[in-house]
Write a sequence for this structure.
């Protein structure tokens, strides 16, 4: 979710003088939930499928049609007669570039900030942190046409990057300029870096990293701009260009297209605001939404979403990126209809409910242990090496690790035992006896990637006899015959001679025993502890 | 209470203590009655509640010597022991410690103390006496303080408090204990009671099995209990409160005819993301947000569904657009800790695709743990609970989806909900559910839902049938009901909290 700020005063110009909670409601129902409202500031959330609303203009444009105040008006495009040529020296993985011109803008500080802001937001979201491309704006008067987009060796590139005191070459930009340092990894490994060069051989920018300070900086004197977008996906660039141009038109700009020639020879006038035709079957909309709509209704509803409709064909504005399928239009119909006008209803479909057999058995075990006065605990599935290795004494190499954990919880728990011991250690001042159990998934076995349900019981103070009584009691209740026998091969945290292995149908389930005092000390436990942990899978298989 | 009733209600220990009440001294009663301290105190508390006496219990903090303190009082504090050695002339640290026989910790503390008082210094690894001869005989403030113990905490001077603070930080030199000072006065009723002769009163204390059989209770009176007196608290066994709520959620879904889905917490990216039409370059698939396990799963076992998912990503379904670009199998094989239970719904659709067409319908739910790579604080955590549901039916529609959700959240304790548009990569139309929070007076987000996109349903089920799907979080409900403000408390396992927390009453 990206947060976009709009002025309340601008919103009120469209929907009238409404109270805050009404404004909140209208914006929320348009799919832009209000995060915060403060004096003239409204912060709304814009979802990733609507990059065309990543600016105040975008939101106001949507609101104008949504509120029924205006119908969407077509954007007029004139030809500029200028050309952009993409040279085959461009990096193979970054081959596309397009551009156009918008004239008659009046920039002030506020507007410059807005334009940079929408550029940044599109770069971060739709262009995936510029991985898929970049966008640049330039004052038109400083540029001489035609423009070429080509690849140059980093050391051949020399210009003064934006807000930097002196000229740098391509390599230096990556190491010395802050934006170069942030995005340098994107061009790593490219033999040649892309640059825009004008007819006088002036380097205008090095996309997708940085513009030239001399010719690529918008200020309050700028009225006409040259806009370019470069990247990996041609269709995406066209959409992005449409989104930016549409918001510049909203603040008074006039659009002039340029002929853009790609490496493969493809020529196209950019921008192209021809709406996309999409078939819409009203029956499908009715079925999915549970409504009965006619052609006129649909025309009105889609109109509220800025989409023209005529006899089964929707004309989707060229800046919308989210309409992949008919269902995307159907959602727009639902939003226009108003989610709060829909009637929640449960159909009479007879089906039979069922709880999984694993949960039924786990609940039975729970009931039995609770009846014996035990308290159930619940712990994280992730845990720390400190507890599993240092304190419990398990070997270091048995664990499934997660990558790049933001906390010290970096492995999946191998057992529940260490968590129950940890709980004892953290509750030494709480009234005894403390008799606990836990049921949950544990991970990693002899075959590596294993995951199964486990039961752990821990008693403090506890002894072998009482715990064996508990195990035998619930074995009897569940009609399971546990085989409890002597073993010399056991987990290292038990006292030798006071630990037994537990089997069911000849299958090993786990151990039952008293915990060694040196382990108790590791966990800062002052009471003797009896501990049992068994695998529950065999229970479920029965 | 009249005198007769009072006498009949006296327990054996009260009876024993009563004759000595006129002594007006707690300690003397202990001595004369032959009862221990605890019993006498209990008797006095009983008598207090019967208004026989007025009991006053004051707490007094006493500072006394700890185990090390007792030893040091005899042998001298470590710094004193060390000072006596240093005074003999410069000595290596090693020898100083050997001669003094101090432990490492004591030795360190002693050197620190001497340096602070400018009595000694270390030069070239040797301990050197730097004080004045007169300092040696003079007792330090701490030593003087130790000599005076025990002292009452509330009565010590500022200087003594200073010494205490220094010594408190060191191991077992001083201890502070709380002592009770018990005193009482007899009331008018009490004064009358002590005049009574209690020795002739014969009341049945405990009703024994023998008495019942021999009927020996006949003609006797039962000692009256103080039925209003406090009794010690007990604790019972209990299901973890999170599980109580999950159990209830499970019941609500099954009552509405849903069948439970189960599955692993470790999943292939394929089921967690790709099957749900989440583009391979979507930011949620960054290490930043999702826990990846450094190991690949095997998609081979899922057969042709892998191809149909690939196709829906690259080209879309039934003549529409997909995400474009190349879909990479390796990316889909990466194992993750599931970020939502929706992966279970995806698998269920795939399982249904194996059935004959007319059987590809039903209602399924899951409640389970999900993960996200997140730091931990009061409102964030790396694990959370989610409830999942899908309805597969050719006649199901968006208003039905709202109906199921409304019903579920009403039952979970949120009578007022609203629905607003939202976005998820795998549903369309999508919806976010808010509940009205009457105390906070605002809408709170409960979670998302929608109808699976054709790119999901057609790829997994093999045909387009509306699949209503939802996956709201569960923890919000939990925290609200149990009045928990800090997410970490859900799995803190504070035993006191587990014993005292209210149960889920629905």
């Amino acid at each position: 979710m990206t947060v976009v700020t709009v002025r309340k005063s601008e919103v009120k110009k469209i929907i009238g003088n409404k109270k805050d909670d009404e404004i909140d409601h209208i914006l929320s129902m348009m799919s832009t939930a209000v995060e915060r409202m403060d004096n003239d500031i409204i912060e709304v959330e814009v979802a990733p499928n609507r990059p065309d609303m990543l600016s105040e203009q975008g939101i106001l444009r949507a609101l104008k049609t949504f509120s029924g105040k205006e119908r969407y008006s077509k954007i007029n495009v004139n030809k500029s007669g200028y050309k952009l040529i993409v040279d085959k020296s461009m990096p193979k993985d970054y081959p596309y570039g397009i551009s156009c011109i918008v004239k008659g803008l009046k920039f002030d500080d506020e507007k410059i900030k807005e334009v940079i802001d929408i550029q940044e937001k599109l770069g971060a979201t739709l262009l995936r942190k510029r991985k898929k491309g970049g966008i640049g704006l330039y004052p038109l008067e400083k540029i001489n046409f035609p423009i070429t987009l080509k690849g140059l060796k980093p050391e051949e590139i020399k210009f003064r990057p934006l807000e930097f005191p002196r000229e740098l070459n391509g390599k230096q930009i990556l190491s010395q300029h802050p934006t170069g340092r942030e995005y340098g990894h994107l061009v790593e490994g490219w033999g040649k870096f892309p640059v825009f060069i004008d007819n006088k051989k002036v380097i205008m920018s090095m996309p997708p990293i940085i513009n030239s300070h001399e010719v690529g900086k918008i200020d309050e004197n700028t009225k006409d701009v040259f806009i370019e977008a470069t990247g990996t996906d041609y269709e995406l660039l066209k959409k992005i260009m449409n989104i930016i141009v549409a918001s510049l038109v909203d603040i008074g700009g006039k659009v002039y297209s340029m002929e853009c020639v790609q490496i493969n020879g493809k020529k196209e006038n950019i921008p192209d605001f021809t709406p996309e035709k999409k078939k819409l079957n009203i029956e499908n909309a009715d079925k999915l939404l549970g409504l009965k709509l006619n052609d006129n209704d649909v025309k009105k509803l889609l109109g509220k979403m800025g989409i023209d409709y005529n006899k089964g064909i929707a004309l989707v504005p060229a800046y919308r990126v989210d309409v992949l399928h008919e269902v995307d239009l159907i959602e727009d119909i639902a939003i226009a209809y108003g989610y709060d006008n829909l009637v929640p209803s449960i159909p009479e479909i007879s089906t039979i409910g069922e709880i999984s057999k694993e949960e039924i058995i786990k609940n039975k075990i729970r009931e039995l242990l609770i009846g014996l006065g035990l308290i159930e605990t619940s712990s994280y599935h992730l845990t720390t090496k400190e507890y599993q290795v240092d304190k419990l004494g398990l070997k270091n190499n048995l664990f499934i690790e997660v990558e790049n954990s933001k906390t010290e919880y970096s492995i999946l728990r191998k057992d529940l035992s260490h968590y129950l011991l940890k709980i004892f250690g953290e509750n030494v001042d709480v009234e005894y006896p403390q008799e606990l159990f836990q049921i949950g998934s544990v991970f990693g076995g002899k075959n590596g990637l294993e995951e199964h349900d486990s039961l752990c019981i821990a008693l403090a103070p506890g002894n072998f006899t009482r715990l064996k009584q508990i195990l035998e009691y619930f074995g009897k209740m569940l009609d399971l015959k546990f085989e409890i026998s002597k073993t010399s091969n056991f987990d290292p945290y038990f006292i030798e001679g006071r630990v037994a292995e537990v089997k069911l149908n000849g299958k090993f389930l786990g151990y039952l025993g008293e915990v060694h005092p040196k382990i108790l000390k590791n966990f800062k436990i002052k009471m003797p502890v009896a501990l049992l942990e068994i695998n529950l899978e065999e229970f479920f298989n029965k | 209470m009249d005198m007769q009733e009072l006498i009949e209600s006296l327990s054996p220990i009260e009876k024993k203590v009563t004759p000595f009440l006129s002594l007006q001294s707690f300690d003397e009663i202990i001595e004369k009655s032959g009862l221990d301290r605890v019993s006498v105190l209990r008797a006095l508390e009983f008598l207090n509640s019967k208004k026989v006496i007025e009991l006053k219990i004051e707490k007094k903090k006493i500072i006394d010597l700890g185990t090390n303190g007792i030893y040091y009082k005899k042998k001298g504090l470590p710094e004193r022991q060390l000072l006596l050695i240093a005074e003999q002339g410069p000595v290596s640290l090693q020898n100083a410690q050997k001669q003094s026989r101090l432990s490492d910790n004591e030795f360190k503390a002693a050197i620190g103390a001497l340096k602070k008082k400018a009595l000694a210094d270390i030069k070239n690894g040797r301990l050197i006496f730097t004080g004045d001869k007169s300092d040696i005989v003079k007792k330090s403030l701490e030593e003087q303080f130790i000599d005076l113990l025990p002292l009452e905490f509330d009565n010590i001077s500022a200087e003594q408090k200073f010494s205490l603070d220094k010594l408190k930080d060191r191991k077992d030199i001083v201890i502070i204990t709380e002592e009770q000072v018990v005193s009482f006065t007899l009331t008018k009723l009490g004064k009358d009671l002590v005049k009574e002769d209690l020795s002739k009163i014969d009341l049945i204390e405990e009703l024994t099995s023998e008495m019942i059989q021999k009927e020996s209770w006949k003609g006797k009176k039962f000692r009256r209990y103080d039925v209003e007196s406090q009794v010690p608290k007990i604790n019972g066994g209990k299901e973890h409160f999170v599980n109580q709520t999950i159990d209830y959620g499970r019941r609500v879904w099954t009552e509405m005819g849903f069948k439970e889905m189960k599955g692993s917490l470790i999943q292939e990216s394929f089921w967690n993301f790709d099957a749900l039409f989440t583009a391979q370059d979507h930011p949620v698939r960054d290490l930043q947000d999702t826990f990846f396990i450094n190991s690949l799963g095997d998609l081979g076992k899922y057969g042709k569904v892998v191809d149909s998912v690939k196709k829906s990503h690259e080209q879309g379904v039934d003549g529409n657009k997909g995400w474009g670009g190349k879909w990479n199998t390796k990316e889909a094989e990466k194992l993750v800790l599931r970020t939502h239970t929706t992966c279970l719904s995806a698998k269920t659709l795939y399982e249904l695709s194996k059935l004959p067409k007319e059987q590809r319908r039903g209602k399924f739910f899951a409640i389970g743990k999900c993960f996200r790579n997140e730091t931990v604080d009061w409102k964030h955590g790396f694990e959370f609970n989610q409830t999942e549901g899908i309805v597969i039916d050719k006649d199901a529609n968006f208003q039905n989806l709202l109906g199921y959700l409304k019903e579920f959240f009403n039952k979970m304790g949120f009578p007022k909900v609203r629905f607003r548009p939202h976005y998820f990569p795998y549903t369309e139309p999508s919806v976010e559910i808010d509940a009205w929070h009457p105390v906070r007076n605002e809408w709170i987000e409960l979670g998302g839902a929608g109808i699976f996109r054709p790119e999901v349903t057609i790829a997994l089920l093999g045909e387009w049938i509306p699949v209503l799907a939802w996956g709201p979080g569960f923890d919000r409900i939990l925290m609200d009901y149990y009045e928990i403000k800090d997410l970490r408390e859900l799995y803190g396992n504070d035993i006191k909290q587990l014993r005292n927390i209210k149960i889920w009453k629905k």
